[in-house]
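Customer escalation, tier 2.

The customer says the design service returned an amino acid string that "doesn't look like it belongs to this structure." They asked us to rerun it and document both sides in this ticket. The original structure tokens are below, unchanged.
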């Protein structure tokens, strides 16, 4: 494989000039730049990324930590992150913690600051203490999809108003005329979906509906199935179910089918997020869409700003921790919701 020095000799320039051309840095004349690019093409030169990282003390990659790559949301989000990162010349390493904090800490210890310049974290079940420790070692960390814009986490983040998402879902069901509404929460009571459920409850209370049945579940289709079936068996008069994520919502539709209920004729179902499966299910799922692509772009942009600034080394412990807030979630009405009818 040709080396950078060989490219420089072929083009009649210094290795530093080749490096500047390949990284689009410094002032290089148009004719010289073209000679370098021609030499690169003629020799088939490809930069050795690992060697570059060692030489410069920084890697051209970003790490994206997710809790479960089996959850369809995370591949969709990773694709959006990858597209945003490529625009700045970065590659993305996907780190799947598989819901295991120990695995997440191992990724932080082994990748942050060595194989990656910075870390994006999306609901990876990592303790904030571990993320602060990573930041303290000089590697910027950005939390993606932080669910409570009014309660900053003390780390740089991109926040989405998920409380509003729950409120929009609740209002939609109320406006259709539903009053006996169950809820499937895809986390523990104090877990990451708590804000979504709080927004839903706020909407019901504002309408004078003070009682609703709720089950907490694993954030999967099967988890939603089990929880929704338990709700429907405990209260056959339920006419609607709100799920705090699309996967449990799809599970709720499966449970309704197994119980002989038709969606939306006998039971309306609404979720949150708007993953591709929500659009492709039959009936198509009514959901509250969050701006996934926008959040990915904001997160990559914020992480790049932190990498290029002194925040990773000098900004810790200040009150000026950056946070970006995305545009608001929006209701997407599809075929899984309709006015209730007596059963």
């Amino acid at each position: 494989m040709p080396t950078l020095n060989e490219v420089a000799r072929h083009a009649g320039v210094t290795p530093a000039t080749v490096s500047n051309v390949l990284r689009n840095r410094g002032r290089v004349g148009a004719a010289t730049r073209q000679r370098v690019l021609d030499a690169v093409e003629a020799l088939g030169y490809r930069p050795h990324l690992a060697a570059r990282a060692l030489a410069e003390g920084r890697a051209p990659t970003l790490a994206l930590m997710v809790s479960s790559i089996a959850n369809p949301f995370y591949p969709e989000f990773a694709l959006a992150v990858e597209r945003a990162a490529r625009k700045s010349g970065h590659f993305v390493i996907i780190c799947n913690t598989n819901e295991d904090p120990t695995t997440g800490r191992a990724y932080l210890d082994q990748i942050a600051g060595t194989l990656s310049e910075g870390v994006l974290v999306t609901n990876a079940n990592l303790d904030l203490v571990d993320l602060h420790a990573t930041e303290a070692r000089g590697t910027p960390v950005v939390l993606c999809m932080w669910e409570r814009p009014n309660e900053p986490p003390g780390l740089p983040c991109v926040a989405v108003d998920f409380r509003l998402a729950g409120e929009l879902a609740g209002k939609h069901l109320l406006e259709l005329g539903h009053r006996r509404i169950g809820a499937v929460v895809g986390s523990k009571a104090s877990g990451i979906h708590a804000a979504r459920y709080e927004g839903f409850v706020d909407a019901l209370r504002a309408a004078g509906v003070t009682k609703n049945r709720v089950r907490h579940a694993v954030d999967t289709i099967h988890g939603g199935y089990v929880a929704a079936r338990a709700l429907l068996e405990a209260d056959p008069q339920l006419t609607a179910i709100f799920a705090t994520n699309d996967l449990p919502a799809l599970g709720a539709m499966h449970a309704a089918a197994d119980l002989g209920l038709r969606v939306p004729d006998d039971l309306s179902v609404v979720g949150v997020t708007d993953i591709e499966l929500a659009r492709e299910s039959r009936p198509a799922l009514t959901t509250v869409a969050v701006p996934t692509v926008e959040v990915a772009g904001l997160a990559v942009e914020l992480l790049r700003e932190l990498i290029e600034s002194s925040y990773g080394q000098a900004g810790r412990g200040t009150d000026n921790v950056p946070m970006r807030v995305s545009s608001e979630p929006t209701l997407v009405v599809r075929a899984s919701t309709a006015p209730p009818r007596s059963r």
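Tier 2 assessment: The sequence is consistent with the input. The two ends are 73 Å apart (CA to CA). The mean pLDDT is 89. Sent an explanation to the customer and offered a walkthrough call.
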